[in-house]
User: Fold this.
Amino acid sequence: MVLPLHDNLSRLEEMRRESIQGGGDDRIAAQHQRGKLTARERIDLLLDAGSFEEFDTLKTGRGGSLGEDDHHYPGDGVVTGHGTIDGREVFVFSQDFTVIGGSLGEAHSQKISKVMDHAVRVGSPIIGLNDSGGARIQEGVDALAAYGEIFHRNVEASGVVPQISCIMGPCAGGAVYSPAMTDFTFMVENSSNMFVTGPNVVKTVIHQDITAEELGGAQVHGAVSGVAHFVIPNDILCLREVRRLINFLPSNNRQKSPFLDLRDPPERTDPALDYLIPPNPNQTYDMNILIYSILDGAEFLEIQANYARNIICGFGRMGGQTIGLVANQPAVLAGVLDSNASTKAARFVRFCDTFNIPLICLVDVPGFMPGPEQEHGGIIRHGAKLLYAFIEATVPRITVIVRKAYGGAYLVMNSKHIHCDINYAWPTAEIAVLGPRGAVEVIYRKEIKESKNPDATMAEKMEHYRKAFVNPFLAAKRGYIDDVIFPRDTRHRLIRTLQFLESKKTHRPDRKHGNIPL
Assistant:
């Protein structure tokens, strides 16, 4: 029997009301008591007001065979759809922890897969708000198959549209691999965690007591493992930072990033930069001073700020154009390259290249980190990742050598010899195979050993080596430096260079893909 029209309207209103209510008032209150927003509240904060259009509001799972909870929830524990951020279209899914713990089943996965497919088809970013207890056990192998469908789409979307994950609650087991394959991962302090095996498994297998926060909390992944690119104090600030990140990025790999004129004159100079480098080559300084000086409006969005702090990666604007910036940080470990720094920078470089974001490299690197720990940990392989990433990149690549640029690390940091487009140097640049002490100890070892005053001889030879080799002028004479510039003019020179490189075209050999040293 066909129900009268008004009965169907009433039924639709009731089903939508039930879907919006999620797990009910008590579970919503419990979510708030944990300091967490609900799935729909998060979407409302993330997207422009009134822009959200929902898909599959009434989609319901088939249920499991355990018979413990026969209630089927419309929406199946995830809210999916599309909306805008500052007027630009994005697709989003937000897991609802109030519904069966946000667990992922077949229908739940199908909803996520649908918005991911739409995102790739129309060329818009995909943002996932993760808050889930993991696979829905009562759906058995269907739940595992559901994860596989999402993983497949993560790989298909990689390099096509930006993918962003926000971990705003638990994320364990197989669920962690989807965020790990996305471009950027946000974590919220004190309410989110990620691990392949949880504290109970750890205690059973290796007999170690550890909390979820200690095992896979936001601070752990932000500073130790490097899994999290951003660690944010709460849900509200997390969603605000996602909006900020989206504003630096293009919608897909066929577009350029949005142009934003901050009314910062391109010809602006900063005379203070002429005095940034200390007279003593062993004295440190903060590379952030240079970064904030040259960027439009002193606005910089740093990626993985607490991980591998000896290298800085992030987004800024120059002349209104988004740029990806990679810089050694002499204030941390003297700016040396180690395994973590190399991997961090390599992945960032590859992202920028994928999405047509020009790269600017600020160099002050004394070399690679020495020692058996680094060698045994594969620093050769990790350093090669960064070398590979820079050489593979076809976007405009500009380098400024600020101070030290020694040995293999000089080559790896986007040097002219690996075909960066333009390579500038400050007058304070030190470009050489080795630093003065290391070089003198090798070249003049016998003379120093036989000297009556080894220290004086060492100092004399170091000064001679410094004047002869440790400066940018020899490299400039050979054409390895395009120009030695005044530090105060760095911003203007970089913006003009970006402008003429805007139409750069590069042709690569025909191949399926290279084999990066992972």
Observations:
- The chain has three domains: 5-61+72-246, 271-434+470-501, 436-469.
- The chain has a mean pLDDT of 92.
- The two ends are 62 Å apart (CA to CA).
- The CA atoms of residues 285 and 401 lie 15 Å apart.
